Amino acid sequence: MPTRPRPSALTVVLTAALAASTALASTAAAADPVLIVQPGDTLSEIAIARGLSMTELVALNGLRDPDLIVTGQRLRLPPRDVHAPARSAAAPAPAPVTHRVTVGEHLTGIAARYGTTVGAIARANGLADPSYIRSGQVLTIPGSRPGRTKTAPAPAPAPVTHRVTAGEHLTGIAARYGTTIEAIASANGLANPSYVRSGQVITIPGARGGAGAAGHGTQPGPGDFVTDGMPSEMAALVGRRSAIGRLIGGEAQRQGVDPAFAMAVAWQESGWQADVVSWAGAVGVMQLLPATADWVGTTMLGETVTPSDARSNVRAGVTLLRHYLDRYDGDRALVLAAYYQGQTAADRHGVYAVTRPYIASIFALQGLFAG
């Protein structure tokens, strides 16, 4: 499958959570408000780091395709951008506090709790990869909002046990108890989260109230998601496009794919929009290349896939995720590498460096959609 060289600009809302952790371009002299694009930069990250809007940068530079900027390109900045640091330095930053990571937590949720950003926490703690933190790790939280900085972390819910029944898998179990596959695998020492056996008793760490020790509780309906931890602009868009979200969640549940994971991929790719066509020719909600759609339809579904039809597109995209989850034994980083780079490239070379921000963005989105 052809390689798609960069994430869609439609994911600008979530990229706010990751922009500060990416090394952005340096500006020219103060009298010349111009920025030189550095390797790995995206227009959305540059806009967020400068406190600008994508529309503003696109209009100022006459860009026809916001996805297409190249290393060394000079981007004009509005004159006010030169003075932005002086304005922001007027108010002293709040004193940092510390936070001990509990099972199932991620930086996106922690940043939202303390009123700061993923990038700020990553910088303050020297985290090379903000997608990976461990239970028990103590983090310095810089710039927390007054009134929230002294709040002690809520104790993790007591773990419960669950007996696996025939046909169950960790994706459904994790969704049922409001935790993650990774947390369950870690708590039970599972080397391969894709394989659990009927009758096996597993510990469920950090389970939400409502699911008892016997494994009874209310399972989320197809496409259930919350918007409480999302940036307000993203939450509004998710609300307006919830019909597509439910379509993705329902298809994911039918195929045994974590709904939050599938929703995150689709949001990264298209912002849950069926009429999006990328510069590379990828189409629809799951951004399928026509050749990929044909391959999935012929070899996996046994039917014609119509990429422009939302339902057909989602079914094919989730089927492709299911295929990669099976192929890579549940390793989601490799799954996303195959989805982004192509299966052959992932098989031969693993995860490209250019793919890592894409993966980190989807993992952060997954945390938001999982609540």
Describe this structure in words.
With 371 residues, the chain is mainly alpha-helical. The chain has four domains: 9-88, Roll (Membrane-bound Lytic Murein Transglycosylase D, Chain A), CATH 3.10.350.10; 97-141, LysM domain (Membrane-bound Lytic Murein Transglycosylase D, Chain A, Roll); 160-204, Membrane-bound Lytic Murein Transglycosylase D, Chain A; 232-370, Lysozyme. The chain is built from 16 helices and six strands. The chain has a two-stranded antiparallel ribbon. It is globular.
Strand order in the sheet with the most strands: 1-2
State the shape: globular
Mean pLDDT over the residues:
74
CATH class of the largest domain: Mainly Alpha
> By helix and strand content, what is the structural category?
mainly alpha
Radius of gyration: 21 Å
Question: How far do the termini sit from each other?
Answer: 33 Å
Strand content: 5-15%
The CATH topology of the largest domain corresponds to Lysozyme
CATH architecture of the largest domain: Orthogonal Bundle
Number of self-contained structural domains: 4
Q: What is the makeup of the main sheet?
A: 2 strands, antiparallel
List the helices and strands and how they pair.
Elements lengths: L11 H4 L18 E3 L6 H7 L4 H8 L12 E3 L7 H5 L8 E4 L6 H8 L3 H8 L12 E4 L18 E4 L6 H8 L3 H8 L12 E4 L27 H9 L1 H13 L4 H12 L19 H12 L8 H18 L4 H10 L1 H7 L6 H15 L1
Antiparallel strand pairs: 1-2, 3-4, 5-6
